[in-house]
Amino acid sequence: MSKSTKEQKFNVLYSEWVHPLFRFIYFKTKDQSLSEDIVQDTFVKFWDKMGTVGEGKEKSYLFASAKNLLLNKIAHDKVVGVHAKGQTESSVKSPHYDLEVTEFQQKLEKAISKLPDNQREVFLMNRIEGYKYREIAELLKISQKAVEKRMSQALSELRKIHNKI
Fold first, then answer.
1. Alpha carbon of 50 to those of 3, 20, 82, 142: distances in Å?
2. CATH number at residue 55
3. 88 and 21, same domain (yes or no)
4. What is the rounded distance in angstroms from the CA atom of residue 54 to the CA atom of residue 107?
5. Range(s) of the domain holding residue 58
6. DSSP per-residue string spanning 83-133
């Protein structure tokens, strides 16, 4: 693959996936700076491996790579935190508390993942990234009323899913 062809392909994929990838990581971290770093590292890694990633497999590679980078960062931070404080991980929080937090996060992620794509996108942009309805409408090139309707439907659906769980 020539350098200019590689750059063109990379630029197209970057434009298409940078925002969904950021939302994916931000949903998990709630940390804008960390999310931006992970997305940047993901695309750097993708640039290096671009020739080995099969055609049509780019999305899977990007999301799997970002998730793995996040998990590595979390594991690293835990080790650093434990050693910096001179405490064992088990003495920091009770196992019961950790289990409840993990279960809640899993239920929430499961409920959000069950939303239709258009509702999930609007929900994450508003509730996680903090965009206003007007900004979402501009970014998605839809009307503000459409954003309001999608959000209303998403919240309604999340209530139903929550009551079932």
1. 11, 19, 36, 33
2. 1.10.1740
3. yes
4. 33
5. 1-92
6. HHHT--HHHHS-HHHHHHHHHHHHHHHHHHHTS-HHHHHHHIIIIIT---H
Long-range pairs, 46-53, Cβ under 8 A, ≥24: 46/10, 46/13, 47/10, 50/1, 50/6, 50/9, 50/10, 51/1, 51/6
* Local confidence band at 130 (pLDDT 50, 70, 90 cut-offs): confident
What's the pLDDT score for residue 93?
62
In sequence order, the 6+-apart residues with CB closer than 8 A to the CB of 32 are: 26
Q: What pLDDT, in 10s, does the model give residues 67-86?
A: 888 888 887 777 777 666 66
pLDDT at 71: 85
Q: Average pLDDT for residues 112-140, to the nearest whole number?
A: 87
pLDDT digits over 7-17, tens only? 898 999 999 99
Residues 117 and 141 in one domain: yes
The total domain count for the chain is: 2
